[in-house]
Write a structure and sequence with these properties.
mainly alpha; 2 helices; elongated
Length: 72
């Protein structure tokens, strides 16, 4: 099987979103919330993190295609 299941960009976006969710869950746990509330907090953080990191990585991807040059 020569083809990968996910592109490098998709794997990076999902990894960053999961890291943000874990961070939110840990912060909720440190605040004294219960386990279920910590999991829900982490899952709620993953949702908006995916489009955020998607646009963040996409902006760098377009700059790489131009050879790092800015138009202006």
């Amino acid at each position: 099987m020569d083809r990968s299941l996910l592109s490098t960009r998709a794997a990076l976006v999902l990894s960053l979103a999961v890291a943000a969710g874990v961070g939110a869950g840990v912060l909720a746990a440190l605040a004294g919330d219960g386990a279920a509330r910590c999991v829900l907090c982490g899952l709620a953080a993953v949702g908006p993190a995916v489009p955020f990191f998607n646009t963040l990585v996409a902006a760098d991807d377009r700059a790489d295609r131009d050879g790092g040059r800015r138009r202006g």
